[in-house]
Amino acid sequence: MDGATVVDRSEGLDGSAVPHVPHDPARGVAGRGLAVRDVVVHYPDPASGKGPGTTAVRGVSLDLAPGEVLALLGPSGCGKSSLLRAVAGLEPVAGGSIAWDGRDLAGVPVHRRGFGLMFQEGQLFPHRDVAGNVAFGLRMAGARRAAASGRVAELLDLVGLAGYGPRPVTTLSGGERQRVALARALAPEPQLLLLDEPLSALDRGLRDRLAGDLRAALVATGTTALFVTHDHDEAFTVADRVAVMDAGRLLQLAAPEDLWRAPASRRGAQFLGYQAFVPLPAAGEALAIGPTGLVLSDEPSVREGGPGGPRGPEEWSGTVVRSAFRRGRTEVTVDVDLGAGTRRVVALGEPAGAPGRGVPPVPGPDGAAQHPLAPAPGERVRVVLDRAGCAVIPADS
Ligand SMILES: Nc1ncnc2c1ncn2[C@@H]1O[C@H](COP(=O)(O)OP(=O)(O)OP(=O)(O)O)[C@@H](O)[C@H]1O
Fold this sequence. Notes:
Strand content: 25-35%
GO molecular function: ABC-type ferric iron transporter activity; ABC-type quaternary ammonium compound transporting activity; ATP binding; ATP hydrolysis activity
InterPro entries: AAA+_ATPase (IPR003593), ABC_SmlMolc_Importer (IPR050093), ABC_transporter-like_ATP-bd (IPR003439), ABC_transporter-like_CS (IPR017871), ABC_transpr_FbpC (IPR015853), P-loop_NTPase (IPR027417)
Number of helices: 9
Radius of gyration: 24 Å
Bound molecules: adenosine-5'-triphosphate
CATH class of the largest domain: Alpha Beta
Keywords: ATP-binding, Cell inner membrane, Cell membrane, Ion transport, Iron, Iron transport, Membrane, Nucleotide-binding, Translocase, Transport
EC number: 7.6.2.9
Strand order of the largest sheet: 8-9-10-5-11-12
Protein name: ABC-type quaternary amine transporter
């Protein structure tokens, strides 16, 4: 999935689009929602059990407005779960503060924060049926049995499991279990829902679908949510704004569209899937090349052996490593020197007017589908920039 398509919208449970609402600070009343200020989380040294052995979160500040969905995105070990756990009250805060609706949560235990939690494994009660699991969430919130049954049906409908109430949870697929876990977490209408990689135990296709459904359920219920993931497609699908973390710090916090169009640093851009970086003539600027930022030259004559050399800083010669037909287009892996040594990048093939366009793909030598006339390994080709798939970033970031 490329960034340009995922940032626009996700689909609701009924297939309708659920637009992302850019965060508008004026939307929230001052002091409402979550305020995280300079938060530091330490873990003690595992050998001695004392001292700040690992600093998992190094002074993170962010705000979450009521009704907003914010994703904490970053590589494994960057401190996302530690920050989430600190907000939940499951980890002590070594520095800074966490407040909800202007009230400092220092010393407020987990069960008194009014926050809901949902983890990677939904942790359903195996001896209860689907309705029993969802009703548990309601009864914890003090709902009476009669009122609960109507609400359980509503919640199951919301997560796409209408009629599943009597099913033993042991008979459900992984995706269905996570839907039940979501219904149970939403049941008490938590003032803030904390989700830690809720989809990561599922396979790719299911994750993509469930991410859209998760957003639809959060939006439909107006739930304020903090969502941890290491998957940028998922973050972009689910969240209104995304906080990119690295090594315990916040690199950037922005709406998906803004994050994609203007990464604030090279590290953040790399994490989002920008594949290469080229210095720009303007001092202090570099061009980050995204997954769709390079295309093969569509003039057969400029393939190596034809007339003319590279025409400037936006066109380079390279050697084909392989071609693969994926998602309706040919992706050509090319070794190319963009100005700082040879790099392996992916360029989009099959441009308009290319020979063989319209001929169906066939299995290549490595089993991957490829176009019969796609460039073969070892062939010299030209790659050109497509600025629409690139972003300008600070050079030394
Ligand atoms: N209970 C713990 N004791 C000691 N160190 C810990 C503990 N939990 C996490 N850490 C360390 O804190 C750092 C941040 O971990 P954390 O789980 O917050 O990262 P993460 O971004 O959520 O990673 P992942 O995506 O792999 O879950 C890591 O270096 C990790 O090894």
